[in-house]
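Field reference: "sequence" (input) and "structure" (output). Example, 3'-5' exonuclease:
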Amino acid sequence: MPDPTHATPDAPDETPDTAEEPQLPLLELADGLPAPVESVAALAEAVADLTAGTGPIAVDAERASGYRWSARAYLVQLRRAGSTTWLVDPIAFETAELAPLQQVMGEAEWVLHAASQDLPCLREIGLEPPSLFDTELAARLLGYPRVGLAALVEALCERRMRKEHSAADWSTRPLPESWLEYAALDVEVLVEIRHRLAAELEEAGKAQWAQEEFAHTLAHRPVPRTDPWRRTSGMHKVRGRRSIAAVRELWEERNAIAQERDVTPGRIIPDASIVAAATAMPADRGSLRALRGFHGRGADRYANRWVAALQRARDLPESDLPPTSLRSDGPPPPRAWSDRDPEAAARLATARPAIAALGEDLSVPVENLMTPDVVRRTLWQPPSAGTEADLDAALAEQLAARDARPWQIALVGPILREAILRPAPPEPEEPTTTE
């Protein structure tokens, strides 16, 4: 028998210095996998069970982003203490049939993760929260380095989540069992996470900040983007107003087709095809098909519509051609401030490091302290006031008008006031030397 005290030179080290940490156990469903709610009778059972429960309701929704034109909810997951998990298939119901669900949900706080992503599709089916707790937003205010749901489950519940179905096509029917389990797990410990984060917010003196943020999220309604077709990838390659008009016509035609078929626009033709056609301006189907990107089913099937869209762009009078770019109502890019307005540049240079330091002290990301756009707009054209007290009042009014919350104004307002009143002089440029 070999002497264990004398290992051979090539023997592996049995106690490596870099031993891997054991993996956390997987998060599992406490009550098993529920069947999807697809009938009025099953919905009544879910409503009764949720009514018997107590406290906040964990809510999540699954969409078919990347597959469908619409942003509708294809599954709604619900869980409440004293109740169980319910997976409601909204596609199986008319919106009016979901009214009993709203009645019970309309009496409780909703717990969502990244609520702004799910609220629009929930509202579309008649579900609206009376109050809200957003676990992602709470984690941001507390300075968590990773705020995804899986990261919070690991940090707060010491469990690991699978995320293999995050990009699935949730419009698929029937939904595979593994997908349903994935969806149910998204609300399994959401209320537990809410309670732990709420306690941390209280301890850190940030509970009021969170309440103001949650109320803002609940009240916010997205504003439709002006000229969304200008976000076509590769748009910067297009030259001339008529070619830009062609991008618009092709984009709007594609969007109409996508809406008709309820598929994501990129599955009809990619942005690169729009840019190629707008640049070449082919006048007939044959010339169009010669272009790169116009050989697939979507490109060929709607070739006549693409040619017609390009013809509309050709027929537009000069006066109706879109401008090469939209006039911005905001300040120029910060890199141009020194030339355009040195005083404004000095104000921004004074405020930025102070806000960054405040964020570090409070363990709050700078963008959550106050959005960079609000800071830039305020320092580019600050309010004019006689005394410092007058300036404080004018600043608070201006910031509130730009959607800043009271807690943000109280913390960042003094920094902006100081930058307006006493901007740091620009650092002198180092003299250049010649050898």
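The radius of gyration is 28 Å.
The chain has a mean pLDDT of 92.
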